From TrEMBL:
PANTHER family the record matches: PROTEIN ABHD18
Species classification: Eukaryota, Metazoa, Ecdysozoa, Arthropoda, Chelicerata
Database matches in InterPro entries: AB_hydrolase_fold, ABHD18
Species name: Amblyomma aureolatum
Record's protein name: Protein ABHD18
């Protein structure tokens, strides 16, 4: 999925999307539908049976403020965002009410209606499940973008918060046409989240270390395949965590040290994890969006979950993209900056509309003023009088 051409071939433009239910409200409609995840066709054994079907909701206004434009944005879920209600309430309904922007809310694989029976809450069983989730979301988003085009929607955009923001970046970069991309509270790679940020404390490093050392041939083969654009930063991170270990320690010594210091992250496992995550999530390893200038990213200045220090800045990878900052941490930004995220979505769609549709989403058809209406009325009366005099 690194190349746009490959993704285009994996998802045909007429990929089937089903609408199962239509719910009418006073000023909008909610459509409920599903599609079979395209990844199931290629890697059926990797996708849990419960995740084979991708469920989604569509919020449509009954009146389009910028008709004939019909702006639509896909919303991908952040960590722990099961079902549709949170995105529908915090983002999609305000977008519809304030700006007449339609939304598609896609359920993540491994979440909500797609959660495996033996999975507890949002706790994925394997590191590889993250990559399966990403592969599903990229192809499902492409299928939904094709559906949007068939149904006459546009301009189109894609967004998400935290993990959803990074997934939106990957999916948007693989779409073969200009697209508004709005990643919120994410950055250029997911590796820092799992190896440096707050969430790194939840990783079972001892288990990963034992798996890492269990098969030397496999380990060496994988290391040859890994490419990390953040090579220097990864080495520095590895050196930082390697200070508690000596090169002369064997596997048993390391295991003993880990048991006595359970909160220490083993350098070997951490570097390996960093390399794998960079290989599979770093934006520089994927296609660049057709028009990076349409992207608007929102980041938090004090984000302890998604660290940016030592990483390539997003504008260096996506030249022309815009980065906005909110002066708070990750959780505070989610709680108190939803209006900033919505503004970024609107601005990205507006950029797309002006550049590729030749008109604005924000300039609505103006109502005639009272003076203009009076002048028009006088003109009609005068015209009637002239007609009578001629008769």
């Amino acid at each position: 999925m690194r190349t746009r051409e490959t993704c285009t071939q994996l998802v045909p433009h007429d990929y089937p999307v089903m609408i199962d239910k239509i719910e009418e409200h006073s000023s909008y409609r909610i459509l409920e539908g599903h599609l079979v995840s395209p990844l199931v066709q290629y890697l059926p054994e990797c996708v849990p049976k419960e995740s084979h079907k991708a469920w989604f909701q569509v919020l449509l206004p009954k009146r389009w403020a910028a008709d004939p434009l019909r702006p639509m944005c896909i919303h991908l879920a952040g960590t722990g965002d099961h079902y549709f209600w949170r995105r529908r309430t915090l983002t999609c309904r305000p977008l519809l009410k304030e700006n007449s922007v339609a939304s598609i809310i896609l359920e993540n694989p491994f979440y909500g209606l797609r959660k495996p029976k033996d999975q507890v809450r949002s706790n994925l069983h394997c590191v590889s499940d993250i990559f399966v989730m990403g592969g599903c979301l990229v192809l499902e988003s492409i299928a939904l973008l094709h559906w949007c085009e068939r149904e006459g929607f546009g301009p189109l955009g894609i967004t998400g918060i935290s993990m959803g923001g990074h997934m939106a970046s990957l999916a948007g970069a693989n779409w073969h046409k200009p697209l508004g991309i709005v990643p919120c509270l994410s950055w250029t790679t997911a590796s820092c989240v799992f190896t440096q940020g707050v969430m790194s404390g939840a990783i079972p490093w001892e288990l990963l270390q034992s798996q890492y050392f269990s098969d030397q041939v496999f380990r060496e083969e994988i290391e040859q395949l890994i490419h990390t654009p953040e090579k220097n930063a990864a080495f520095k991170a590895g050196q930082q965590f390697a200070r508690d270990f000596t090169h002369s320690m064997n596997y048993n010594d390391i295991s003993l040290a880990l048991r006595s210091s359970p909160h220490v992250r083993p350098a070997e496992a951490l570097n390996f994890m960093r390399g794998i995550m960079d290989e599979c999530t770093h934006l520089e390893n994927f296609a660049r969006p057709v028009d990076p200038g349409l992207a608007v990213c929102v980041a938090a200045t004090r984000d302890a979950y998604v660290l940016r220090e030592g990483l390539k800045p997003l504008p260096e990878i996506w030249p022309g993209c815009e980065v906005r900052y909110v002066d708070c941490g990750h959780v505070a930004a989610f709680l108190f900056s939803q209006h900033v995220f919505r503004k970024a979505i609107i601005d990205s769609l507006e950029k797309t509309s002006l550049k590729y549709y030749g008109r604005s989403l924000l300039k609505r058809q103006e109502e005639p003023s009272a003076a203009t209406a009076t002048t028009a009325l006088h003109a009609v009366v005068a015209d009637k009088r002239a007609t009578k005099s001629e008769g």
